[in-house]
Specification:
The complex is a heterodimer of chains A (284) and B (398).
Chain A lengths: L4 H28 L6 H17 L4 H24 L7 H23 L12 E4 L2 E4 H23 L1 H11 L1 H6 L4 H24 L9 H15 L4 H18 L8 H15 L10
Antiparallel strand pairs in A: 1-2
Helix pairs in contact in A: 1-5, 1-8, 1-9, 1-10, 2-3, 2-4, 2-8, 2-9, 3-8, 5-6, 5-8, 6-8, 9-10, 10-11
Chain B lengths: L1 H18 L1 E8 L6 H20 L3 E3 L2 E11 L4 H13 L5 E3 L4 H14 L3 E3 L15 E3 L9 H10 L5 E7 L2 H16 L3 E8 L7 H10 L3 E5 L2 H13 L6 E5 L18 E4 L15 H12 L5 H20 L4 H10 L1 E4 L2 E4 L16 E8 L2 E8 L14
Parallel strand pairs in B: 1-3, 1-4, 4-5, 5-6, 7-8, 7-9, 9-10
Antiparallel strand pairs in B: 2-3, 11-14, 12-13, 14-15
Helix pairs in contact in B: 2-10, 3-4, 10-11
Classes of the chains: A mainly alpha (284), B alpha/beta (398).
């Protein structure tokens, strides 16, 4: 296999996981115009959730289902106490509210688990495919990201509830006039977004060690992926994540790794200059 | 009147005590970021104080001097160090100084010790730069950063005369970069070809891109690393990616006992360490490594970390210099330190007397530990230098 292909494939696999995290962020923005600054902290929570499930004897991949359920419930809870009271206020209010939630999660997490690294230490197989070495964990993480996205799409486009979410996203007043209980739908959307963030965190935790502060870097990547794909557009976010991963993979062999982030953000700025609404257009 | 008598009695007692006491001053980071390491160092120093006082003190010129320690909490802050060392010298009138923990704090303390012409034994400080400033009163116990990985390369060369291509991959931190840069220069001298010399950002968790480069460059051995978290992750991913390296040597992480949690990924990984409880040096003075370890375990209930050993060693070196000088006169003690060439439980101790690098440690060598399987369990073994080893190097590891 040509040497350049291996890092690109690595980038593609991890990019799908970035994409999943970005969908969580962009879904919340798309439906309720809230930029969720607790996104990174929630990703870290997902990491710890799968870690503790694993420690209590549940296989990490089985744990994903439980993490998603916890994420949904936690998201609805956060929405009800932190976001709902100010949802119609100025955008700065929701920014501050979600930022506060982030500080609370990180503060409690630091107190409980310190900032030392944790590892989900389950046996990982190393596969050699035509000279390309990859771990089973990476393949499964990418596959899981694709499956979850497909599931989300089926939900949004094939179910009544999903259609209600899209209706509220398009025009909340009109949706309310049609008898859609918008507050419940908003809570559900926030819950789904949070569940996706926690799921992506759980998948990342199967690949790399993490601390309660590890969500920050993935939050940043989620923002970039969301904006690349067009804010509020879930498909775009997935592709945005893949593009981000591909950039990381493709440039790595040619430059010092310390420069990867610089290149990533330069390309990001360039794309925004020429495609101000992202590569795939804004909200749909 | 009664108060005056008490005061006079106290002054008298103080004068008497001072007559037979040598006071050694230093600061400890009892709080702040160096808290753990610095307190370990303090434990070593206190153990030395107890050990020497139990023997009746230090014999200097026919008299025995008890050792008193005077120390303050520097909160791991440079500005506190400068204030407190000035205070130790001008108000507390200490006789000799030991450094704080860490190169950064020691650099600050060295300015003060030099300004007042007080001898300071520096432990817990591996920086070279402190000793390139022409200081005449500062003496280093640790192997300096410039030689952190040179022992590893010596060992690699001894194990394999034909090995050519090595990769040096390090964390982008001041310490790791300095170590890596020095290793690169030394590698060339030893006939290695450095096929990859690259840093990675702090907090890196995905070493995939770096590992691809190591493979692409065809490196046969890898040296580098940085701190615990990155080093452990790096070793784990090297194993998962089945990188065919004959030797992996990383800074810091493998020297820690927690490294065993990596399981098979830890197997064969080498790390340089200032000191290990298992070393087998033949000391020319002071306790043997086993005696020191035993004393420490009795006093604190656990095995000594190398910082604790460094603390004890600093006291022991000062003690030895005082005994050699036969007086507490600073000029003569300085001459004794300059002439020192001894082996203690901590290893060989010899200082540079070259004015351009005065006080730099020349004798002490890093020990190389390797994770090996012993009775089916992972255990650290000392594989280098040969006079300290507990097992043969396993080579190649994969």
């Amino acid at each position: 296999m040509p040497e350049i292909l291996a890092p690109v494939l690595d980038g593609l696999l991890i990019g799908l996981v970035y994409g999943l995290a970005a969908i969580g962020l962009t879904l919340i923005f798309g439906v309720m115009d809230v930029v969720n600054l607790a996104h990174g902290a929630v990703i870290a929570l997902g990491m710890f959730a799968v870690y503790f499930l694993f420690e209590s004897g549940i296989h990490p991949y089985l744990g994903l289902v439980i993490v998603a359920a916890i994420g949904l419930a936690f998201g609805v809870f956060v929405y009800l106490i932190a976001v709902r009271p100010i949802i119609d206020g100025p955008p700065l209010m929701t920014l501050l509210a979600t930022f506060s939630v982030s500080m609370v999660i990180i503060g409690v997490g630091t107190a409980l688990w310190s900032t030392s690294p944790y590892n989900v230490d389950f046996p990982v197989k190393t596969l050699n495919l035509f000279g390309y070495t990859v771990t089973s964990a990476r393949l499964v993480a990418a596959l899981a990201a694709v499956l979850v996205t497909a599931f989300l799409y089926t939900f949004l486009y094939r179910t009544t509830l999903g259609k209600a979410v899209r209706a509220v996203a398009n025009n909340r007043e009109a949706a309310e006039l049609m008898g859609i209980p918008s507050q419940q739908i908003l809570a559900l959307a926030f819950g789904i977004g949070t569940a996706l963030a926690m799921l992506s965190g759980a998948l990342i935790a199967t690949l790399f060690p993490f601390t309660i502060l590890s969500g920050g870097i993935y939050e940043l990547k989620s923002f970039v992926a969301s904006v690349l794909g067009g804010l509020g557009n879930p498909t775009g976010a997935l592709f945005g994540g893949v593009i981000l991963g591909l950039i990381e993979g493709a440039v790595a062999p040619f430059i010092k790794v310390s420069w990867t982030n610089v290149i990533e953000f330069v390309i990001f700025v360039l794309i925004l200059l020429f495609f101000p609404t992202g590569l795939f257009g804004g909200r749909r | 009147m009664k108060k005056l008598w008490v005061l006079l009695a106290l002054l008298g007692a103080l004068a008497f005590a001072q007559g037979n006491t040598i006071t050694i001053g230093f600061t400890v980071s009892q709080t702040g970021k160096y808290n753990v390491e610095s307190v370990n160092q303090l434990r070593g120093l206190k153990l030395w104080q107890k050990w020497v006082n139990d023997q009746g003190g230090i014999p200097i010129g026919g008299k025995r001097y008890k050792v008193a320690l005077k120390y303050y909490d520097d909160e791991s802050k440079a500005e506190r160090v400068q204030q407190l060392y000035s205070r130790l010298i001008s108000q507390d009138k200490v006789d000799f100084l030991i450094s704080p923990y860490s190169s950064g704090l020691t650099a600050k303390a060295a300015i003060i010790s030099e300004q007042y012409g007080k001898i300071m034994v520096a432990t817990g400080a591996a920086s070279d730069s402190i000793f390139k400033l022409g200081y005449e009163n500062v003496y280093q116990i640790y192997t300096p950063a410039s030689r952190y990985l040179t022992g590893t390369l010596d060992m690699l060369r001894a194990a394999d005369a034909n090995l050519k291509k090595i990769a040096i991959v390090y964390e982008d931190s001041k310490f790791a970069k300095a170590v890596a840069t020095a290793a690169k220069a030394y590698a060339a001298k030893k006939g290695f070809e450095v096929v990859l010399f690259e840093g990675y950002p702090k907090n890196t968790t995905d070493f995939g891109p770096i590992i691809k480069k190591i493979k692409a460059a065809g490196a046969e051995a890898l040296v580098g690393g940085g701190h615990y978290a990155d080093g452990a992750t790096f070793a784990r991913q090297l194993y998962e990616q089945q990188v065919p390296l004959k030797l992996i040597a990383l800074l810091v992480a493998p020297a820690s006992d927690e490294f065993a949690q990596l399981g098979d990924a830890a197997l064969g990984v080498v790390a340089p360490s200032q000191w290990e409880p298992l070393v087998k040096y033949q000391q020319t003075c002071g306790p043997s490594p086993a005696q020191f370890t035993q004393m420490y375990k009795e006093a604190y209930g656990k095995l000594p970390a190398y910082r604790a050993a460094g603390g004890f060693a600093a006291g022991l070196v000062l003690q030895r210099a005082l005994m050699d000088a036969g007086t507490t006169d600073p000029a003569k003690v300085r001459a004794a330190l300059d002439a020192m060439d001894i082996t203690i439980f901590f290893g060989h101790i010899k200082f540079s007397t070259d004015p351009a690098s005065h006080g730099l440690q020349l004798g002490h060598e890093m020990v190389q530990i390797q994770w090996q399987k012993k009775d089916g369990k992972l255990a650290k073994q000392i594989v280098w230098p040969l006079d300290a080893k507990t097992a043969d190097l396993v080579y190649p590891i994969r």
